[in-house]
Every structure is written in structure tokens, then in C-alpha cells.
Amino acid sequence: MIVPWLVFIGFVLVMLALDLGVFHRKSHIVGFKESIAWSAVWITLGLSFSVLVYFAYDGQWYGLGLTPDSVDGLINNGKLAATKYLTGYVVEKSLSVDNIFVIAMVFGSLAVPARYQHRVLFWGILGALVMRGAMIGVGSALVHNFHWVLYVFGVFLILTALKMLLMKEKEEHPENNPLVRWLQKHFPITRNYHGQHFMVRAGSQNSHETAEPGAAVVADPVVDAAPKGKWLLTPLAVALVLVEVTDLIFAVDSIPAIFSITADPFLVFTSNVFAILGLRSLYFALAGMISQFRYLKPALSLILLVVGVKMLAAKWLKVWLGDSFNLTILAVILGILATGVITSWLVRPKSENC
Fold this sequence. Notes:
Blueprint: H1 2-23, H2 32-58, H3 78-109, H4 114-145, H5 149-166, H6 178-186, E1 199-201, H7 221-225, E2 231-233, H8 235-258, H9 265-277, H10 279-286, H11 296-312, H12 314-321, H13 325-346, H14 350-353
Antiparallel strand pairs: 1-2
């Protein structure tokens, strides 16, 4: 059973190494065409993986699909496993889009230079993979040993969905975040950006780098006042911490959502990983158009509502829908997501129509 995990994690590490070490070895501004191309690559890989899931579970490779799924008590054959993987992937992908709104706000508020945003997202998402892996492991064990936890998850998701639908969001400023204030209190943070570095040492060459190569060096009072050799955090490190915390907060919603579909650890983990890996390129593709998707948040709220209700009423829905139960849920989720996107394009604010 450990072989599929090792192969998959090895594949992810190779792709990440190619991403940072080859394609993005030098920091640069990620353009729209490049982001669309990478988004297409990650989405293609994520969808294509469902074919491998089908054959792996149908053939019970290395013990996959031998034990009943704790969510529905069924043995995951090829078709069922592929359907659950795709449903989980679509749910996690759609919920990760909401994460983009907050990341854009973090980058805008901290004035993170465009050429270094990919670097922050790369390390942020790498940390997110580790955190989600741990959360999935704990969640899977809870569902396996305490089936009633699914009902707790279901109620939580429904309440979260209703909160998103009914409550107006307050405009938040990341620089006023309690975590940022805690960092400022306990760690020296440079005033300026110093290239692509998360940390610099006072008196070193790195401490004299600028946010933009070739620009004139601007005095940094924090660096100048620090003892020579002292390590200092840069605003880029603050942005990274906020991105990590943002994903942790969103994972609290998305992890329970995936357990409405399956408790198979391999399906949960792989669908989450592929959804997260494409988040960086998706950010650069959508960052400039976020304000246009005004009906996407209500759509995401409805998706959370659907998966929450599915958790609470799974037995009755299964009887009502029969063998097409999981495919129907997938179709409903895709329909809600498509409706939110299409409505956002067709229904413009009055100010734009004038």
C-alpha cells in the first residue's frame, strides 16, 4: 500500500523541482499567457490522473480499493474511485479559488513586487501540502474510528455556507493582522524588500539588494540599526506567513468537504494535492479579473451547502439516487460552479452597463 504513496509523492517532488529549479529559476513577472499555459498543464494532469485512479482501483494495485470506504461503506472499484476522485478534485479546486481573493489582498496590501509573488506562492503551497497531509491523516483516522464525526463536519459546512451567504464580508487589512503585529513585536522586520530573500543578514550584500534589480538602493533604517551579522525578516517573509495561515484557515473548510465524498486517504490526498498545485498559476491567471467574478462566492457557498447536506443525508440520498449517487453530486457541483462563473460574465454591475 505504501508504493502508490511513494510514487505519487515522488512525482510531485519532481514536478516542483522542475517548476522552481528550471522553469522559474530566475524571478520574473508571470504573464497572463504563461499562467494560462501552466494552469492548463496542472488541470490536464489533475483530470488525467482520474484515468490512473480508475485502473489502479479496478485492478486493486498494491492493495488500493480492498477496504470499504468509511463514508459510504462501499468498496471503491475503478468507476467509483475515479468518480470520487474527480468530485473531490472539483470541490477542492473550486474552494481554492476563494483562496485567491485573500492572497491577492495580501499581496496588494503588502505591495509584494510582482516578480517575487511566484516565489512566495511556491513555498507557501509547499507548506500547505505538508499541513494538509497532516490534517487529512488526522481526519481520515477520525472518520474511520468515529463515523459520527461526518455529521459534525456536515453541520459545520452548512453553518459556514450560510455565514458566507448571509453575512457581509468586512474589508480586512493584512498589515493589521494580529499575526503580523506579533511578528513585528518578536522579530526585526526590514522596512524594504531585499530581492527575493525572506531573510537577510545586516551588513551582508543581500541587505543592500533592492526590490527591483538595477534600482537605486534606498536606506533601510531597520537594517542600518541592526548589529552586523544579525538576521532580519523581510516583508516577503511576512507575506509567506500570511499565505500559509490563509491556506490553513481555508483548509478548515475544504478538508471536511472532501470527507463528504470519500474517506479513502489516497483519494483525499491526491485530489487535494492536484487542486493546490495549480493554485499558483491560477492566481496569476485570475488575479487581475477577481473583481469580475462577483457571483463566484455565492456559488462556492452553495457548493459547501451541498456537500454539508450530502454528509447529513447520505443514506437517504443514496436510496433516492441509487448507483448514480456520486455522479449526480458531481454534476450538481459542476453546475453550480458553471452557473456562478457564467452569471458573473453575463450580469454586470449597473455602473459597467452605463
